Amino acid sequence: METLRCVVVGSVPVTGDVAGVQFRSTGSACGLEAAALLWEADALAVDLQALGADEVRRLATRYPHVPLVAVSPQDCVVEAVRAGAAGVVVAPADGHVLAEEVRRVVAHHRHVREAARRQVLQPLLRLRELVPSDGNPETVLRRLAEIARVTVGADRAAAVTLCPEAAELAVGLAERRGAHTAEGFWTVVPGSLASVPPGAEADDSRAATVALVSGGRPVGALTVVRHPHREPFGPAERELLDVLGIVGSLPLVQLDLLHQLRQGNRRLTEALAYACELHEASLRGHSERLASYAVAVGRRLGLSEAQLADLRVAGMLHDVGKIGISDTILLKPGPLTPEEYETVKRHTVMGAEILSAAGFGEDVVRWVLHHHERWDGRGYPMGLAGEEIPLGARILAVADAYEVMTTGRSYRAAVLPGQALEELRRQRGAQFDPQVVDAFAEALSSGEVAAEAGWSAGEGWR
C-alpha cells in the first residue's frame, strides 16, 4: 500500500503514521507552505473552525494540485464543501477515519487529474493523424482548426499557412454551431486577409492567436475566438494554445516535406523520361502522352488515386530500360534480327531493375516489368497470360500500342486514330485485355483520351 503524506493545519490532533498516511502538523496556515511544498504533501487536512471558511477557500484556490480534507462540525459540512474541500470528516477527527478520507480524496484527485490530462492530450495526439496520404493541406488545416477550437473551448478557430503551390494563404476554419461543427477552407492572397471574426474587434481577451513555429521559423498561425457573452480565455487556455502552436506546426512541416519530396520525385521521373527520348527526336512527349492515356483508362476502371499516381509514373518510365540498348538497334529502320529483338526485349527487365534500385514503388516496378506481356501468353519477359498480368501493365500495353500507332516510328508509319482503335479491337482477347480495350475506346469517345494523331513524338511499340 502506498504511503501518502498529509499536512494537518490547525488544531486537529492527528500526527505520525496512521493507516498508511503520514501526518505532519502545523499550527497555522502560515507554516503550511514550507510543510506542504518542501515535504511534497499529497493532501491537506484543515480545521474549519480554527481557520474559517475564507482561509480554507484561499488554501483550496492557492494549492489546487493538492486535495483538501476539512475537519468540520456536522452543521458546517456544506460550508466546507463550498469552500473547496474535496472531502469532509466530522469533528472530532479520528485518525483512521481521517486517513481513510485522505486516501479516498487523493485517489479521486489523481483520477480526475489523469482524465483531464488525457482530455488535453487527446487533441494533441490526433495531430499525428492529420497528414493525409494525398498531401492535401485542406484536410490538415480544417482538422487543426477544429482541434484548437475543442481544446481551448472556443466558438471559432482558424488555421492559416502559406499554400505550397502558390503565394497564397491557405485557411482552414472550424466554427461551433449548436452541437455541430461547421468547417470551411479557402485560399486568399495575403493582402485581402483584412477581416477578423465577429467579437474579436470589441474585446481581444476573447480572441487569441499563436504562431505555428518549427525550428524558429513561423509556418503559419492559429487563431481562436469566443463570443462576447462568454468568459475570456484564461491563462491555462492560452498556455494550451501555445502548446498547439508548437505541436500543430508539425503536420504543416510534414506537408511541406511531402510536397518537396513529390516535386523531387516528379523531376526525377521527368528527367528519366526525357533521357529515354533523347536518342530520337520523334520520341519527344511519347511517355507523357502514354501516361495520360493510361491514367484516363485506369480512372475508368476504378483505380484509386494512389494507383493512378503510380500508373502515371509507370507510364512516364515504362521504357527507361532502353537507356541500356544501342541506338543502332532502337533506330534501325527495318526489321530486327532475332538476336536484336532479344536484346530489345531485355529493356523491360532492365527498366524494372533501374526503378527498383531508385526506390520506386512495387507497383511501378511490376507494371514496367510486364507491360509487354500479352493477354494470350505470348509476350515477354515471363509469358504471363490473362489476369496473371498486373492490371497496370495491361493498361500500359494498350496505351503504348495506341500511342506508337498514332505517332509513328522510324520503322513504322503513323496511322489515323480510328485505324489504331480498330487494330486494338482486332487484337482484343489476343494481345490485349478485352476489358482494357473497351475502357480505352470509351475514354477515347468521351474525350478523356486525346485522339489527335499529328502530335510529334512517341516511343517504340517494340
Mind telling me the CATH class of the largest domain?
Mainly Alpha
- Between the first and last Cα atoms, what is the distance in angstroms? 81 Å
CATH topology of the largest domain: Hypothetical protein af1432
Helix content: 40-55%
Look at the helices and sheets and give the structural class: alpha/beta
Neighbour order of strands in the largest sheet? 2-3-1-4-5-6
Q: What's the architecture of the largest domain, going by CATH?
A: Orthogonal Bundle
What is the molecular shape?
elongated
Look at the structure and give the mean pLDDT: 78
User: Which regions contain 5 or more consecutive residues with pLDDT less than 50?
Assistant: 188-203, 451-462
Main sheet record:
6 strands, mixed
Q: Into how many domains do the coordinates divide?
A: 3
Multimeric status of the protein: single chain
Number of helices: 17
Order of helices and strands: EEEHEHHEHEHHEEEEEHHHHHHHHHHH
Beta strands, count: 11
